[in-house]
Amino acid sequence: MKRLLLKFGLLGLVLCLDLVRWPGLWAETGLLSFLRIPPVFAILTLAMVAAALVRSGVVRWAYAVVLGAGTTVIHGFQLSAGTSTTYFDFVTTVDARSALPDAMALYGPALALALAAGIVMAVAIGLKPPPVRRWTGRAAVVLPLVVALGLTAFLVERQGQIRGVPAGWKGVGFAGLYLIDRLHGIGGERRAVEIARSRPPIADDIVLVVDESVSANYLDINAPGGARTGLAQPVPGWSITNFGIAAAITNCSMQSNVALRFGATRDAFQENVATAPSIWSYAQAAGMRTVYLYGQRGGENENYVTDDERLDIDDQLYFRDVALVDRDHRIAEEIVDRINNSVPEFILVNKLGTHFPLTGLYPAGEGPFRPEAEIEALSKDADFWRLYRNNYRNAIGWSVAGFFERIFAGVDANGPGAVVIYTSDHGQTFYEHEAPGNVTHCRVSDVAMEEGAVPLVIATTGLAQVPDWSAVLPSRFDGSSQYQLFPTMLELMGYDPAQVRSTYGPTLASDEPDPMEFGVRMLLRLGEEPDWVRLVPDEVFRPQDAP
Asked: Over the Cα atoms of the chain, what is R_g?
């Protein structure tokens, strides 16, 4: 009896974390939907009890580990972000697991509580139960499995939408949906390059620089109180075109990055990511060597890079042995060497940038924006965010300005032509217009426009015969999007403009207006239609206070 009380006492303790969410569910779902939640919760709780009564230790502990892991993941996001965990949040959490050290730095106490809840859940189920009748033992083995399959099937039908589910089962259901999504989502054989080339590439080197978490409205080229970028003043030997604040592809890192590599469009996002030729394939077909410079945390297959995709990359350089504070500067030096080597190359760069929590990314206390926030965890305090903006601008000054100053100083302006395209994966909200929270981007509801505000700058040097972007800049400034980058790069590589336009849409040289919308909940394979958020640059927050 004592063992039984201990098991179910621990189980009840963990379930209390779910029950405290019910007042919020009342407000979210309304009376009728709320009244349907307790029966669902009760059935799933019964399935947990059944798992705890399984006589086989191997089977029981298997259920314990799975439900404990589900509890940890769901509560980990929920306690950190302060919102319920959606399927999109689950996918983002799993796919962005390389950012766990950053998350631990900011959300350590919340993640520790989630881990403790997961361990308690596992122990509650895994402890040996008292003897039960044989038929009860058989039912205990089958019921959790039936519930897991049924819950997954329900999530498939509802495209990941569900409420009133204990965290452990929610994690299990999302994991099942994730597996189906990966195996049976939008797919097919990846197409070969079919667009014809009408001329050679217009430059020996084309460099796409994708920064991390750099919001366009915090740069000196777009705001009076913006951070120094090295792009605001003329540079001898270089032509710099600033397109102002542009719309990102999405407000999430991984989705934006993979879309930039495969030419996702607003009408064919999932299809292009799954089956279209990569930018590497187009570059190789144009006679260019392909180079990938990766400065962020994680391994070779981050941002949905696959082993098959990597076969089309000639040179891959990672900078794990370089200190974070020096990493972007070292990448700039590598770019200089590549541009000066007289080898035609397409170079894609994932900079380290200004990802939270900013610690170690720049020399703290040495920037011009003062005072700085003490960053131990993201806060819902307005004063914290006011100071955090200073940290952020100081980090930009170190990372972005230091990066471009090295490129401009090192590249031989009289050498072969080079085109450097600069953007970021997404923008950031620091709660400039709303009550403070603790999530800066990748939100799926109440999305701030600033989350999709990215820089878009093109710098050219040498003999590159680029389009006259200045001719369309009056209509393009504060009116472009990252969806125009892929077709722009293809035209720079010499591909037929008419075919490029019909396949991937207008380039930055086109005077066609862009919708200025970025995607939210951009799931890659599930087939669910994303939400779209319109970016209005005139309404985006721009800091006015200079250092």
From this structure: 25
Q: What is the pLDDT of residues 227-262, one digit of tens each?
A: 999 999 999 999 999 999 999 999 999 899 999 999
Q: Tens of pLDDT along 89-126?
A: 787 777 666 667 767 766 778 888 889 889 988 998 98
**Which candidate, 195, 247, 237, 238, places its Cα nearest to that of 217?**
247
Helix (H), strand (E), coil (C) string for 46-77 = HHHHHHHCCCCHHHHHHHHHHHHHHHHHHHHH
Phi/psi-derived region of residue 144, left when phi > 0, alpha when psi is between -120 and 50, beta in every other case: alpha
The conformation of residue 222, written as its DSSP 8-state character, comes to T
Question: What pLDDT digit, counting tens, does each position of 174-213 carry?
Answer: 888 888 776 765 556 889 999 999 999 988 999 999 999 9
Least confident of 12-16, 387-391, 439-443: 12-16
Which amino acid, one-letter code, is at 27? A
Tell me which DSSP letter residue 196 carries. P
Lowest model confidence (mean pLDDT) among 68-72, 88-92, 220-224: 88-92
* CB burial of residue 156 (10 Å; 0-12, 13-18, 19+): middle
- Give residue for tokens 């039908």: 157
Residue ranges per domain, the chain?
2-184, 205-374+408-539
The alpha carbon of 350 is separated from its chain's Cα centroid by a whole number of angstroms, namely 13
Closest CA to 327 of 391, 399, 396: 399
- Rounded to an integer, what distance in angstroms lies between the CA atom of residue 153 and that of residue 173? 9
Structure letter (DSSP) for residue 128: P
CATH homologous superfamily of 205-374+408-539 equals Alkaline Phosphatase, subunit A (3.40.720.10)
SS3 84: coil
Contacts of residue 39, Cβ cutoff 8 Å, sequence gap at least 6: none
Q: What is the pLDDT of residue 76?
A: 84
**CB-count exposure of residue 489 (10 Å: 0-12, 13-18, 19+):** buried
Query: What was the pLDDT predicted at 28?
Result: 42
Q: What is the spatial distance between Cα 484 and Cα 186, in angstroms, rounded to a whole number?
A: 23
Q: How far apart are CA 79 and CA 352, in angstroms?
A: 27
User: Which of the pair, 449 or 306, is modelled with greater confidence?
Assistant: 449
Identify whether the C-beta of residue 468 lies closer than 8 Å to the C-beta of residue 413. no
Residues 6+ apart with CB under 8 A from 70: 118, 167, 168, 169, 170, 171, 172, 174, 175
Whether 268 has a pLDDT exceeding 80, the answer reads yes
Cα dihedral value 222, 227, 230, 232, nearest 10 = 30
Q: Is 316 helix (H, G, I), strand (E, B) or coil?
A: strand
From CA 376, how far away is CA 390, in angstroms rounded? 15
Please report which confidence band the pLDDT of residue 7 belongs to, taking 50, 70 and 90 as the band edges. confident
Q: Give the end-to-end CA distance of the chain in Å, rounded to a whole number.
A: 68
Return d(Cα 492, Cα 484) in angstroms, integer.
Answer: 12
- Per the document, the length of the chain is 547
Q: Which residues of 339-374 are buried (b: 16+ CB within 10 A; e: fewer)?
A: beeeebbbbbbbbbbbbbbbeebbebeebebeebbe
